[in-house]
Specification:
It is built from 10 helices and 15 strands. With 320 residues, it is an alpha+beta fold. Belongs to the PP2C family. It is found in: Membrane.
Length: 320
Amino acid sequence: MGPYLTVPKREKASEDGENAKLKYGATGMQGWRNTMEDSHIAELDLGNGISFFGVYDGHGGNEVADFVRDHLANELKQLASFKSGDYDQALKDIYLRIDEMLKTTYGKQKLMSYKKQSDSSASLFGRGNSSEDVAFAAGCTACSAIITPTEIIVGNSGDSRAVLARKSSTPGGKFTAVEMSVDHKPELPEEKQRIERAGGFVEDNRVKGVLNLSRSLGDLEYKSDSSIPLKDQMITAMPEIKRETVGKDGAFLIIACDGIWDCLTSQEAVDYVGDLLTNKKREKISQTIEDMFDKIIAQDVASSGGIGCDNMTCVVIQFK
């Protein structure tokens, strides 16, 4: 079966929470994959009325995604840019900061500890046993949202995605999907130009024929040219930033890994979540996400072409 199980793991890890401004649900499911390599962050209070949410889809192992889960929010709070309210810059700073941390002795030791805790093995994935091997081979996408009392600021690197749902003005009050991120793929002209300037190439829509995304945290083997700034490496952690205002129109934000977006368009996800949130009145937001996962997971690997066979992680934030 290669990277897939013979029977999917449908058990879901879910959480819910709320404050005066919003409520959220978050769910992760391993599905058909041999291992679970996704993680997420849900922090209701980073101070000054700020909340923070993110989804981090690992590749080459779970280690970098787990490192991000355990370190990013706390490191973000300590940044001068965050403390001063420059949240666009703070998201850029924290992504590059994570890459720098992964290069340190501490970072490499943490990655090794995650590797030892996981069910993955070097023989299964072809990775070595040293901390250097793990630091260079593993990576993750990063799609994060800083939510202030008035704004949503999304920083995205990779092909996880954030989609804002707003009530449309048309009769019936349907939700309209507003994409707050771009899927960073190597074949995109701007991404391909950066990859080639850094000495790489794109083959079969993959960086050097291997990696099928062009921005990520980790993946240090693609960021090893010391003559090039981190933002200009073949693979860069530098996020694209998008902002939207927080409305009082029943809006909600979906942040999810590509395991969901391979199965649903942005509008389809908004329609599905919006219908359950507004019409079926699910007790918990995470129950809506669980229902969605059950709907889109593949019934079998062979006939699905891999669609619906990936790890699935999703966070939904509903504004009050």
